[in-house]
Structures are given as C-alpha cells and as structure tokens.
Amino acid sequence: MSDATGPRRLALRDYAGVLARYLRDDRGLFALLASMLACNIAVALLTPFLAALFIDGATRPALDRTQAMPPLLLLLAGAFLVAGVCGQLLKVASAHLGAHIAWRATNRLRTDVVRHCLGLDLAFHHGHGPGAMVERVDGDMRRLNHFFAEFFLQIVGNIVLLACLLVVVAFVDWRLAAAFVVASGLALGLLVYLKDSTSPRWGRSLESNAVLYNELEERFGGVRDLRANGARDYVMRKFTERLRANYLTTRAAATFGVVVQHSGALVVALGTVAALAVAATLYLGGSISLGSVVMVSMYGAMVFAPLGAIIREVDDFQRAAAALGRVRQLLAREPSVIGGGGVGWDPGPLRVECDGVSFTYPLARDSDIPDAGLPSLHDVRFELAPGEILGLVGRTGAGKSTLARLLLRLYDPTTGCIRFDGRDIRQATTKELRRRVSVITQDVHLFDASLRDNIAVFNPALSDESILEALRQVGLLSWYRRQSGGLDTLLSSSGEGMSAGEAQLLGVARAFLVDPGLLILDEPTSRLDPVTERAFDNALAGLLGNRTCVIAAHRLSTLDRVDRILVLDRGRVVEFGKRQVLVADSSSRFAALLARGELQLVAE
Questions:
Q1: How far apart are CA 313 and CA 292, in angstroms?
Q2: d(Cα 43, Cα 38) in Å, to the nearest integer?
Q3: How many CB atoms lie within 10 A of CB 547?
Q4: Which of 439, 262, 442, 418 is nearest to 354 (CA)?
Q5: Contacts of 8 (CB under 8 A, 6+ apart)
C-alpha cells in the first residue's frame, strides 16, 4: 500500500544530513577517501600539462632530431607514464574504498529502518505487506548504497575537477575558458532544471516495484491453496497486470532519464567542439603553441568526462533521491502504540479490568465499505479477579480476537482503558507488558532457526535446563528425544516435520518460559483433532494454575474450565457472568448458544 502523500521533495540539506549522519562513524576512512580524490584530481590536471611540455619541447626548431632524445624529454615522458599509472591506481583504490564506506553506511541505515519497522504497530503492517517491506529494506537500500558510494566520488569529485580544469584553461587563454564555461553552465543548468522532474517518476517506479513484490510474496505464500483450487490462471493474470504497471512506470522514468542525459551530453559536445575551434584559430594566429592545443584538447576531453559522469549520475541520483524520500517517510512514521514510562506489576496473577473500551481498526477509517466506520468493540466493561479464567464467546466477527489484541496491547482502545492491578497498561513499557502477558493463538509461528531459539524466541538469557523443563511440562520430551540435533535441531518456518498439535504445544512451552500473570488463548484448539486437543488440554492445565486467563473459544471442551463467560455480539457485551449460573439459566444468551450448537462455528 502506498502512502497517501507520497515522498516529499528533498532539499540539498536532506542529502547532506543523511550523508553526515551515516558517514559519521567512518570519518577517518572518509578523510582518506577525500585525500585520494584530491591526489587523483592533481594527477589528472598534471598529465595534459606534461604532454604539452613534451610536445612543445619536441617541436622546437632548434632541436637536433639526428641526436638522441634530450634528457628533459625523457624525463617528461617518464613523468607522463608514471602519472597515468598512478592515476589509474588511485581510481581503483578510491572506488574500492568508496564502496566499502558505502556498504557500511547503507547497513547502518538498513539497521535503523528494520529496527524502526519492528517498532511500528500492527495498523502499519496490515497496510504494508511483507513483499513491500522487503523492497523497502533491500531494494531501496541497494539504490542508496550507490548514492553513498558515488555521490562523493562522482558528483562532488567531478564538480571539483571541472572547476579546477576551467581555472587551468583560463591560464592558457580566457577565450578557451569562456567556451568551456558556457558549455558547462548550459549543461549543468539543464540538469538542475530537469532534475526535479525525474525523481517523482522514479518514485512511482519504486512504488510499483513494491506492489509487485508484495503480490509475489502473497501469492507464493498461498501457493498450496491456489494450486488446490485451480487459481493459477488468475494469479498469472494479476501478476501480468502488476508487471505491466511496473514496466510502464519504469520505462517512463528511464526514458525521461535518457533524454536528460543526452540533452546535457549534446550541449557539452557542442561546447567542446567550439573550444577546439577557438584553440585551432588561436594556434593558426600564433597566439598559442601546438602543445597548448593538445593540452586544450585533452582538457576538453577531461571537461566532457566529468560532465558526462555527472549527467549519468544525475539519473542514478534521482533514483536514490526517490528511495531516500521513501526511507525518510518511513522513518518519520510514528507508532500509534507507544510504551509508557513504566509502572511494573508484582509477580502472580493479574487483576484485569476493561473500563468502557471501544475500538475501531485504523484501516477501517479510510475504507469505502459502508459499515467500515462502525466500532469493532463498543463500551466493553468487565473485571476479572486474579487467577480467574474468562471465556470469550460469540459468533464470527463478534470481536473476540480484537479484545485479545487490546489486552496484549497490539492496539490501544479508541476510548476507555484497560487496567492490570489497577494500573493503566499504557503506562507500562512494552517490555514490562510482554513479560507479564503471554498469548497462544491458533497459528503458532515458527522461525527458520534452532529448536532452542524457537522456544526461547531468541532470548539468550534462558538456560537450556529451563527450556527442557518447559518441554517436559507440555509433554514434548518424547518428541524432543527423537530430534538428532537436540536443542540445536533446525526448524522450518513452514512447519515441515511438525504436526499442528506439536506446534501448538511448542507455543505453550513458550508461555511456560515467560511465566505470565495473564495468559490469553485466542482460539488455540480450532485446528486440532480430538486426540491432539486432549494432549494440548493436559499441557494447558499446568499452565493455567495460579494465572489469570482469557480464552477466546468456540469448543465446549475449552470452556469447561472457565470461571466466567463474556458473550460478545457485534462488538458489544450482551452477557457477563459465572459459567455455572449462565448454564443453569435457560434464558441466558450463553445457554441459547449451547442449545443451538453455535459454539461449534469456525472461529473468527
């Protein structure tokens, strides 16, 4: 999903600010790069001068061509050769060092972007698919790597070289310098005039590229269902549409970039021809020597080279500018869920209170669906004593999973508040909240990592002994002993080699390690067969001891152990009370759901 406003136009200070921030840690290497660049410019300016001295010396009328070459000419020829070799070595070394600095700077920026994205709330990630985020973190960063590597070497370096060349030519003859200045000024002026027209085009190209990546990620993620239902033709048609849109936007940007490049190159070529014509006229008139004409010719080629490099880099620079605009826009996005200063809770089960909680999903506000503006939850009120177990029931779409997300503070209520032990959860830091609240969902996510990391969720502070104890408590020890690698056994994110029940039990093991004061179960048994569900219930029985728990469920067996029932209907609490009382009351909504068998519906 694209941002509504689009990347804003960046000023020169924006580029300078990014360079200064991410090159700060490599000041020493950057100073070395600047020194190498200065030496390279000096060698480039010296080479034509040595050639001119050699030609003027070799064409002097008094020179006796029957004798061996004078030592001075030999020295000039040797100096010319050494300068050429040194110049090439400096170019290679500076390019290597520039690429090294660029990768370090880009990786620092990439790290900041990933850290920032991980801190953004679910409202952002629901609107930006994994494919689009990969394009942001990888594709945009690769373009910015070129920006970090080439901006100083090509743009700044060639501008400095161009200025030095014009000064040197002015010492030869001001008329030659004037011709070069006019040509260079026209070319640079044209680039400045057209540069702001290129960046938005590349911005649209990058956005269409992100949409294409997101489409691919989504389709490959659901390839099993697509193949099973014969939807391959539909996928290919949608892919072709996305690919065509990406092609058209990229072609428009590239075509305009080519026009800019060759327009500037044409102006420079005409200016160089004019300068050479002036030099030839001056030589025929006796104002300058043949060596000076050769030197001017070489300087003319050198003027064309940096200008041509600048012209080529401007198109790449505009791609980087578009990428930088997208990255800065992403970094400027603030999460809607922000941790507080910290309150802390005592160990043990938590008292849970929902006080007038209403909530509307942020994405719904911009939807064209007629009912999109209606709250998902409306004025939800209830209180759980420490250690009580609450069962959330209701039809699909009633708001059970939404309430579970609010208790975990994946979102904040639109109005009202949620309190644990009398303290608003918005006052706690995210770390404090995650330490005291744990969740087990119907889809336990596995990582391409070791069994140890999958259970500890990459927490190095957890010992192997505590992990093995958690496996024992959930009944996975026999499964664990069959793994040849022990805790170092590599698991797959696809769940290959694990049944759905084993994955669910692994989720329970994670909760054992957290030792939460509030446990949230969001339809945890909806995908389990009866045998696996019994194993899950046995593991869960130990976890529920001395903990407050909220269970969103639709199976009767899951609700057998709850103390209280809260019935939701279209986001409103229609019933709340003790389970035994509601079951015994034939007029209660819960009893009616049981009688009609509606608790067997598929969960939301």
A1: 31
A2: 9
A3: 20
A4: 418
A5: 325, 329
Q: Can you give the three-state secondary structure of 76-118, one letter per residue?
A: HHHHHHHHHHHHHHHHHHHHHHHHHHHHHHHHHHHHHHHHHHH
Residue 356 region by backbone torsions, left for phi larger than 0, else alpha for psi between -120 and 50, else beta: left
* Integer Cα distance of 80 and 72 in angstroms: 12
Rounded to two decimals, what is the model's pTM? 0.61
CA 41 to chain centre: 37
Tokens 């994405």 -> residue: 363
Q: Which of 502, 500, 507, 499 is nearest to 454 (CA)?
A: 507
The pLDDT tens digits for 61-96 are 655 555 555 777 788 888 888 888 888 898 888 888
Retrieve residue 455's tokens.
């259970």
Q: Where are the domains of the chain?
A: 12-332, 352-364+376-600
Helix, strand, or coil (residue 603):
coil
| Alpha-helical regions (H) of 408-447 | 430-436
Alpha-carbon gap, residue 248 to 196, rounded angstroms: 20
> What residues pair up with 40 in beta bridges, in sequence order?
none
pLDDT computed for residue 353 by the predictor: 93
- Domain 12-332 matches domain 352-364+376-600 at the CATH topology level: no
Contact (CB, 8 A) for 399 and 408: no
Both tokens assigned to 478: 């026999």
Burial of 292 (0-12, 13-18, 19+ CB in 10 A): buried
Nearest to 521 by CA among 561, 485, 484: 561
Task: Look at residue 302 in the predicted model and tell me its pLDDT.
Answer: 67
CATH number attached to the domain at 352-364+376-600: 3.40.50.300
**Residue 255, C-beta contacts closer than 8 angstroms, at least 6 positions apart:** none
Q: What is the pLDDT of residue 371?
A: 40
> Exposed e or buried b for every residue in 564-598, given b needs 16+ CB within 10 A?
bbbbbeebbbebbeebeebeeeeebbbbebbeeee
Q: Residue 167 and residue 151: Cα distance in Å, rounded? A: 23
CATH class label, 12-332: mainly alpha
**Parts of the chain with a pLDDT under 50:** 1-8, 364-373, 600-604
Q: What is the pLDDT of residue 369?
A: 38
Distance, CA of 173 to CA of 52 (rounded, Å) = 15
Distance CA(602)–CA(310), nearest Å, equals 62
Pick the closest to residue 148 from 204, 178, 177, 105 (CA basis): 105
Measured CA to CA, the distance from residue 73 to residue 470 in angstroms comes to: 85
Expressed in percent and rounded to 5, the helix, strand and coil fractions of the chain are 65, 10, 25
